[in-house]
Amino acid sequence: MKQLTPEGQQIINNIAQRYHFSPDAVFSMLLSVINGNGSMAQFNHPEFGGSGQWMRGGMIMLGDMFNNGLKNSVGNLCQELANLIANQPNLVQSGSFQSQSQGNQQQSNFGGNQNSGTASSVSLFVPPPAGSSGNWWPAGLQFPNSTGAQNNMRYAYFATIRRLAIEANGRVTLYDTLDHQIGGFSQQQSGGSSITFTSQYGLVDVNTLPVISIDNIPVQTPNQPQPAPAVHASPVNTTGVSQDADIFAALEKLAALKDKGILTDSEYSTKKAELLARL
């Protein structure tokens, strides 16, 4: 999580006092606006009526849908935070950067300066360590084609290299998007944390995509190309044996990831069942 500078914390405290919200609520909204690239925010905080969504231009939806006073305060807060981060380096992407939310694609252009009435020359966040980009997605990836966030999940989609990074519950998973042309994302609001996206094939569960890495640790699954086994004897039909060996090797890697706490019991059980079904 980004760390505020002392000056940034003072700015957040001042905004919180003016809008009659807690600094914690304002800071959480600031991160939501940043995740939405300054043009939108998806949030979930009790002081804002639970879950809700804001888009630049005046669109605001709250869980407390009939509280017009709260809507006005939250909308103005989001607008001020968007103006505040517009002049902060490396917080929003300039040019034709796209930000998506639940299947709706919005254009965000932050080429000019915007005045919010709050000091913009002050750095809000402590800069990342030398040699680090400060991005949450795996190192080595270029700028994403789209980003977004909802509740405890955020994503970055890299269409040109067919990669999708999702951070959920503090863990970053990198997927291969195959030939999907992704148009939007959504997260299950209840009954788990299932994440889906829309593509030319309709509504697709993210868990059906091959996993490249989890927290920068490579994960090899049966969906990924396997190295060809060395042949030291006369040619025989070893396809079935090789596939079984690959599956058992994958099971061992899954068990290791579960022991390290990288995979939850539920995720481990699901992947294990998929592998065993291939035997």
Gyration radius from CA atoms, angstroms: 22 Å
Quickly count the helices: 5
- Major β-sheet annotation: 8 strands, mixed
Q: What fraction, in percent, of the residue positions are helical?
A: 25-40%
Instruction: Indicate how many domains the architecture comprises.
Output: 3
Number of strands: 14
Could you give the order of the helices and strands?
Answer: HHEEEHEEEEEEEEEEEHH
Distance between the termini: 42 Å
Unreliable stretches (pLDDT < 50, length at least 5) are: 94-119, 230-234
Structural class: alpha+beta
Order of strands in the sheet with the most strands?
5-4-6-7-8-9-13-14
Mean pLDDT: 75
Please report which band the strand proportion falls in: under 5%, 5-15%, 15-25%, 25-35%, 35-45% or over 45%.
15-25%
Q: What is the overall shape?
A: elongated
